[in-house]
Amino acid sequence: MNSMLTFTDRAQEMVLNFMNQGDGGEPLALRVHSNGGSPVAPEFELTLVEGEDRSPEDLEMDGGGFRVFVDPDSAKQLDGATVDFVQRVNGAGFEVLPPKPEFPSEPPTGELAVKIQAILDQQVNPQIASHGGRIDLVDVQETEVYMEMSGGCQGCAMSRMTLRQGVERMIREAAPEVTAIHDVTDHSAGENPYFTP
């Protein structure tokens, strides 16, 4: 099959290093499996398996010197994703970066979109404006809402709490039909992530 996943040079190097630490028996392969998460922030598990340890429905691809097995459900979320190996202060590990979702360039329309936009305009944004932040509605798909933070909210350590305990609560009270609220912000790209008044 065509490659749905791209491995960075560092990720390829680390996978091959782990494979070379094996007992030299069965050749190893890498299994990538979806572990849940949201549509815009899925979670994945990477494990080494014996080269023949695969399900009949698994898709196989070349990761760059090693085989990769992906189940069909996970493959839907992995198409266009990149696997990297990152080192941070609190540890190191593989990270699967899904492709950035594309949303309409025009503001969303419809009864639910109008209701949520009113909540953002009248209740949410006036409150977080004092911290240099803003939250925009970028899409509504059936009963799922997609929002993006900017300004002081983008990259703020408190943004998840702001969304979950504040914004989400207000939206669910005004629009109980909403089934999911997704934060599609790239928090690593904020120019002013820790606003100081």
Specify the number of helices: 4
CATH structural architecture of the largest domain: Sandwich
Kindly name the structural category: alpha/beta
**CATH classification class of the largest domain:** Mainly Beta
At the third CATH level, what is the topology name of the largest domain? Hypothetical Protein Aq_1857, Chain: A
How widely separated are the two ends?
Answer: 53 Å
- State the strand order across the main sheet: 3-2-5-4
Order of helices and strands: EHEEEEHEEHEEHE
Q: Report the principal-axis shape.
A: elongated
Q: What proportion of the residues is helical, as a percent range?
A: 25-40%
* Low-confidence parts: 189-197
What integer is the average pLDDT? 77
Strand content: 25-35%
- Alpha carbon gyration radius: 20 Å
What can be said about the biggest beta sheet? 4 strands, mixed
CATH H level of the largest domain: which superfamily? HesB-like domain
Number of spatially distinct domains = 2
Number of strands: 10
